[in-house]
Amino acid sequence: MGVMWFARLSGRLFKIAITLYILMTLAMLGWTFNWPFPDVRGIKPADGIVCLGGGMNARGTLADATLTRIERCVQLYEAGLAPVVYFTGGAATTDGVSAGAVMGRYAVQLGLPPRAVRAEGRSQSTLQNALFTLDMAQDARRLILVTEAFHLPRSWISFHWARRVLGLPEMSFQLVKSENIRTDPVTGEIIWRMLARQSLAIWFNGARALAYSMLPGAHVDWLR
Length: 224
Hints:
Largest sheet: 5 strands, parallel
Oligomer: single chain
CATH superfamily: HUPs
Order of helices and strands: HEHEHEHEHEH
Shape: globular
Distance between the termini: 41 Å
Strand order of the largest sheet: 3-2-1-4-5
């Protein structure tokens, strides 16, 4: 009897999980391809722009998606929307250079003044992006978050969560997309697995954030 009850419960939970996953994927498809490209004239000035790391290999080469994010951030800076840009991303190897530092250097090559660069080089996840960047920007009250459209909602949630964890005053986070979703650099085709992975990442990140918030003494490495 107990085995049958457990089997039925497991089956129901599995169906609920699949349903939630499908609904999240459909929602992501909706906002990924309908999120508008911003008119810089409609973006409110902020205290800083946050360029979220989008990947770097062990040789220190930034992913194409990361380069696109940086270019969007430089465009926003040149439009006079914020005095500094935070580049957030850790190293791909234990003794390697951080993505945040490499991103900052590329931005300077594009014309961003070195005085406007703030590099965060420890984070290995969106949750850590948020925690470590806000720790550097505690006096900010308005930040612009820049990433791909499919990643924007998770970034927004992560930064609001990090603000509460750090005990900071109210902040607002404007969302600006760099592009819709990543495409294959050779064929130009959409990399659909990114959407599938992001649908899972939202739930996974939520569980990690909840555990980190509830358990005293939790180590920040939990959020990698």
